[in-house]
Amino acid sequence: QKVFVWPKPTSISWPSVVYAPLTPTFSIRAVPTHPALRHAIAYYIRHIRAERHTPLVPPANYTLARVPVRLLTLSVSDAQVPLGPDVDESYTLSVPADSASADISAATPWGAIRGLETFSQLAWAGGGEAAGGQSIVPSGIEISDRPLFTHRGILLDTARNFYPVRDILHTIRAMAFNKLNVFHWHITDAQSFPIVLPTVPSLAHFGSYSPFMRYTDKDVRRIVNYAAAFGVRVIPEIDMPGAYPEIVTCANKFWAPTASPALAAEPCTGQLNPLNPKAYRVAQDVLRDLSALFPDPFLHGGADEVNTACWEDDPVVRRFLSEGGTHDQLLELFVNATRPFMVHELNRTVVYWEDVLLGPKVMVGPTALPKETTVLQTWNNGAENTKRIVAAGYRAIVSSAAYYYLDCGHGGWVGNDSRYDKQEEEGDGAPLFNDPGGTGGSWCAPFKTWQRVYDYDILHGLTEEEANLVLGGEVALWSEQSDAAVLDGRLWPRAAAAAETLWSGNKGASGRKRYANATDRLNDWRHRMVARGIRAEPLQPLWCPLHPGMCNLSQ
Amino acid sequence: NHTVQRHRAARAKAQMAAKEAFLAVVLLLSLLSSPLPSGAQASVFPVNVWPKPTSMSWAEPLAAIPVSASFRIVGTSGNSPYLVSATQRYTALLFAERYRPIVRPAVNVTAGGPALQSLTVSVSDLSAPLQDGVDESYELEILPTGVATITAATVWGAMHGLESFSQLAWRGRQGELLVAAGVRVEDKPLYQHRGLMLDTGRTYFPVVDILRTIDTMAANKMNVFHWHITDSQSFPIELPSEPMLAEMGAYGEDMRYTVKDVQRIVEFAMSRGVRVVPEIDAPGHTASWAGAYPEAVSCAGKFWLPDASDWGSRLAAEPGSGQLNPLEPKTYEVVANIINDITSMFPEGLYHAGADEVTPGCWETDPSIQADMEKGGTLSQLLERYVRAVHPHVVSKNRTVVFWEDVLLDVEVNVSSSVIPPATTILQTWNNGANNTKLIVQAGYRAIVSSASFYYLDCGHGDFVGNNSVYDDQRSDYKTDGGSWCGPFKTWQRVYDYDIAYGLTAEEAKLVIGGEVALWTEQADSTVLDARIWPRASAMAEALWSGNRDASGRKRYAEATDRLNDWRHRMVGRGIRAEPIQPLWCRTRPGMCDLVR
């Protein structure tokens, strides 16, 4: 029988189709109480009392239990576990038949929070008069649940375009609905530096889009605390700054000069100059400030897409190279001057984009990147690069663009692009651009549908040993073509697809991929998210969930 | 994270250098042979009007004046209720809007100088009805002395003038309301039909969404809301003579357009100078009718694609199969009632009768049709029988019939042009880009252009059908189309650059009455509506209003980028969740985000 919980729990037992109404005074209590759960309990009491979810196809033929549920009790065996990597998120949930109270047991507060979300999704507005207008929950149900991967995240880029704090909080809330637990905050980039850092305020002063488009330390604390209340970690990532012109090479140049190599992967040029000692002073100030604001043990050091032409724009760099220095040495200088600081002074595990090890153009050797304190995030070449990372002994976070980049397939955004100005069909032999099969200008086209995201096996091709090094995955929204106006629709429900795959997998008990079965469940979950205020985009016409199976490709 | 983009861009640039040289020659030749559009303005002002007017001048040195708190818009000659409501609306907008340009306009504001006291609107023909081909021209003048005027032939032109006026106002440093002064605009559209098609059959949209969309269309000087009301998935409109259709065919009781809703939409649109062209798609796309009239609908309820490996086996172009059976008398009874009801609910002179994607496989499953075919009948004859009944009935209601091009151009099922006389028929094209437009106008028909590879706003979003194993491929997917039949996504530049009269002779081009961007809603509903439409529909709006070329005849997409960034910013301020076209960084560094400098 239907129990709509997204992501689908690992195991559900519900022998008979009986629902119990909640009392109007339904409450949640932790025994013993724990401060980390205070906000979550308050939130879910309010939320569960108010929500009246009507499934798109409501269950029919069920009986109502006589005894309503008035209390949900949480018991946590180790209430002191801090939020961080590898935290135990397992829980069991039971609503015993003919009992006025339900229970959630978890090893940690963070598992209890996952259980609270599950309980909230068990409730729906059936029963009508007989239930006194209250939501009902399955009675006699036992759920035992825990995630496959410990790292289940969303990357949001707040530098290409700015997002107000409330949009970030709203996104973190939606993440908690989906049991996602890592908000990878790509705070800064070449285009803007929106975070105000106490020691180096001038970075935001000169680097943010406007005084109204800055995150103050108060904003950051609010975001970090709000996320923690939902069991979501916040991992900050900083790309290094353009506010000190003397430490940045090739700043403010046109990105794609006609006669020479491009200076950046996209408009807005500028890289830190590893030969300028001041670069390290600034970098250390930035990192120290960040570690004070973000308690998470992981700190993301970026280091993707280093551009050689940009460095060569600088005379000091050119001299270094002409005297036999290499680009790899330049990068290594930078890594060696910042990484040990992050590890030893700030006690952080450093996450880098895979580029730092895999290149292809500029890379450092593994000796500069000790495995114990380095995690690599992959984004190119799908499963292939994941394999290269773990085979080299590193822990991996998977964000393969071909599956997990939510901005892909939206065409190009650079201006003055004559490639769109084609009135006729593209001829045979010419590379497709505007016609079906063409990219339309998006480097990582096509658009990743929810099925594409859902079907990705992030352990594809790995040995068991190698697989143990994959911490999990992150879907990513790079924001060249997104801002607050469209955020929800870009993220949801596709991030939900990743959330289920990373929580309980994308295969059914038989080992078969379960995307067909997931379609109706995700339709319903999307419907519920919309009612919860998340403007998730629709997967299908409403006709499809109302006619199960009829919108499939094969019968 | 965009290495690959860079490589591709670099490659493309080499190719383009050669092409540009060629293009320059072509342009030069075209300049010599055809006269330039007169009065076109090449320069970009610090504050602009979207779509760009045919002609606008702003006296140097650029100046602005404050708007007086007692500012009023006054009509000079007689009264039109639509003009009165428009003046009230724009007065309210002017004071309510808090638009601050992303880049502060470098214009002179004289402290203590004159403030704008009034805008006088004079209209020569107050009673000209809103219809196809109505005069939409206007002139707007804002004098530095604090006086402004709009002169127009019709109320509808005057509304465009009011919109332009509203876009010339902004908030200064202290929040004070300023308006450009020393400005003169002379403006009129290139095409009389500038539309948006919205599909409320796949997905229901609440009335407020439709009203907001129409309001935004008016702000973009678009004038036709093509309402694709029904489809196979649902029949959301309540018709007095055929109540069972919505009763059985709508998604739910709260997902129906009542007679009152329709009245409200039509009236709201009229008050904004937007015509509402209704479409009840038939004989294909009618599975939703089967709840009320199972006898009239062939193949309803059957799985849409019996053999997933054979597209020819399909019963419909997408899930939800069912099309009207032309051999069934009930079909004609229902369609006649629908035509009567719709023409009385919608005053508009165009009636869209659909007729796209008639699928052979569906009719072929129907026993009565099988019997007819055994006697030598063809599917085209079947369609012709249907069209022969429907077309004259619509014409008898004093309407021009719009069909999708399929009715004439479909290779498998089509009618001869004798049953759809060009005098009373317009064809809307969606396939094969400029080629089909040419076929249509060469056959003597007026054309509305909605070529999917330029104007379909839903494209490039992957496929929506379920249980699709194609996505379960663990290899990298750069080379696949992602499942969208009309991918890739149409960017605003793609929309903007389309020349809807491409390849036509001057004579043929006269038959192209305009274009419509289209949003089919398999993957869109209320939550994402604005972003799917805007600002890409704005791109078409300008191309059809004043063209996509500058005074020298060159495509002006590069120059349009910053203006569209500004207009999108303004639309968001007006409550439209239009999507961003670039990082904000780009708008503040003109030219730096271009592909080619």
What are the defining features of this structure?
heterodimer, A: 555 residues, alpha/beta, Chitobiase, domain 2, TIM Barrel, 2 domains, 8-stranded mixed β-sheet, 8-stranded parallel β-sheet, B: 597 residues, 8-stranded parallel barrel, 5-stranded mixed barrel, 19 helices, disordered N terminus
CATH architecture of the largest domain in chain B: Alpha-Beta Barrel
Strand content of chain B: 15-25%
What is the count of DSSP helices of chain A, taking H or I runs of 4+ residues? 18
Percent in strands of chain A: 15-25%
Residue-averaged pLDDT of chain A, rounded?
94
CATH H-level name of the largest domain in chain B... which superfamily?
A: Glycosidases
Radius of gyration of chain B: 25 Å
> What profile does the largest beta sheet of chain A have?
8 strands, mixed
Just name the CATH architecture of the largest domain in chain A: Alpha-Beta Barrel
Report how far apart the termini of chain A are: 22 Å
CATH topology of the largest domain in chain B, which one? TIM Barrel
Can you put this structure into words, describing what you see?
Chain A is built from 18 helices and 18 strands. Chain A is an alpha/beta fold. Chain A folds into two domains: about 10-145, 2-Layer Sandwich (Chitobiase, domain 2); about 150-410 and about 435-545, Glycosidases (TIM Barrel, Alpha-Beta Barrel), CATH 3.20.20.80. In chain A, strand 16, helix 11 (about 380-390) and strand 17 (about 395-400) form a beta-alpha-beta unit. The mean pLDDT of chain A is about 95. Chain B has about 600 residues and is of the alpha/beta class. Chain B has two domains: about 55-185, Chitobiase, domain 2 (2-Layer Sandwich); about 195-365 and about 380-415 and about 420-465 and about 475-590, Glycosidases (TIM Barrel, Alpha-Beta Barrel). Helix content of chain B is about 35%, strand content about 20%. Chain B is built from 19 helices and 17 strands. In chain B, the strands form three sheets. Chain B has an eight-stranded parallel β-barrel with strand order 8-9-10-13-14-15-16-17, surrounded by five helices. A five-stranded mixed β-barrel of chain B has the order 1-3-5-4-7. The longest helix of chain B has about 30 residues, at about 5-35. The two termini of chain B are about 20 Å apart. Mean pLDDT of chain B is about 90; it is low at about 1-40. At the A-B interface, helix 11, helix 12, helix 13, helix 17 and helix 18 of A face helix 1, helix 14, helix 18 and helix 19 of B. Chain B: It is an enzyme of class 3 (hydrolase). Chain B: This is Beta-hexosaminidase. Chain B: Its EC number is 3.2.1.52. Chain B: It catalyses: Hydrolysis of terminal non-reducing N-acetyl-D-hexosamine residues in N-acetyl-beta-D-hexosaminides. Chain B: InterPro entries: Beta_hexosaminidase_sua/sub (IPR025705), GH (IPR017853), Glyco_hydro_20_cat (IPR015883), Hex-like_dom2 (IPR029018), HEX_eukaryotic_N (IPR029019). Chain A: Keywords: Glycoprotein, Glycosidase, Hydrolase, Signal.
